[in-house]
Amino acid sequence: MEPKITIITDLDDCIWNLVDNWIGEYQKQRIYQYKWGILDDEHDKSLNKSMVTSWDIESCLNPTNRDMFWNCLNDDEFWKNMTVHPATIKALETINNHPNIDLIICTDTYYKSATAKLTRFFELFPFIKPSQVICVKEKWRLNCDVLIEDKPETLEKFILKGDSSPMFTIKINQPWNTTTVCDYSFNTFNEDLAKFCIECAESYADAIKEIRQEDLYNERCYYN
């Protein structure tokens, strides 16, 4: 059996850009409220991801129509239109196909949007099995060797697990986690990140193989 490391990666704003798409969908729906199809609201028109400097997205953006803003996530069409950069798809497939990696997608997903969201995810990533996806809020209750995440609280709580902490915590850089401490950071989920994960897995596998060979040698010496 091949020695493996477990890699847990978040979905929203790690693999695909939720906040960008969320703001865009809200602005589009606000346009529908205007007679001439123009967003005649300077505040809502100016909203963008760089304004989201904390995990409290509503307080950062202060959308004019808060109910409409949150209901975007309950709209099946919103998730059907979600897209992913081809480089991210390739990077995730590269990680998933490596014999020394167990890949888990872990997402904090509201139950009303879970079906539409995950349906779209499996359309975009058909090489991921349903058994590889976990929906959980307190992700730090899980154990892994490498964590890929954007949420500050999740990164910090994994680090604070002590002996159960991952070998490496990796942050996908976002405006809301600029001060968050982690082992490594990447701007996007791309081939560089995939290469790093594979190097971790292969280093671990080489170490385990050396230990096994040493144990086998010692066992033979003992019986001889």
Summed up, the helix count is: 9
Return the structural class. Answer: alpha/beta
Total beta-strand segments: 6
Query: What Rg, in angstroms, do the CA atoms define?
Result: 21 Å
The residue ranges in which pLDDT falls below 50 over 5 or more consecutive positions are 220-224
Average pLDDT, to the nearest integer?
Answer: 92
Give the distance, in angstroms, between the N- and C-terminal Cα atoms.
27 Å
Secondary structure layout plus pairing:
Blueprint: E1 5-9, H1 18-31, H2 42-45, H3 57-61, H4 66-71, H5 76-80, H6 86-97, E2 101-107, H7 111-124, E3 133-135, E4 146-149, H8 152-159, E5 168-172, E6 184-186, H9 191-223
What are the defining features of this structure?
224 residues; alpha/beta; 6-stranded parallel beta sheet; 9 helices; 6 strands; 45% helix; elongated; disordered C terminus
General description of the model:
- It is built from nine helices and six strands; from the N terminus they run E-H-H-H-H-H-H-E-H-E-E-H-E-E-H.
- It has helices at residues 18-31, 42-45, 57-61, 66-71, 76-80, 86-97, 111-124, 152-159, 191-223; strands spanning 5-9, 101-107, 133-135, 146-149, 168-172, 184-186.
- It is of the alpha/beta class and 224 residues long.
- Helices cover 45% and strands 12% of the residues.
- The longest helix is centred in the last third of the chain and has 33 residues, at 191-223.
- The chain is elongated, with a radius of gyration of 21 Å.
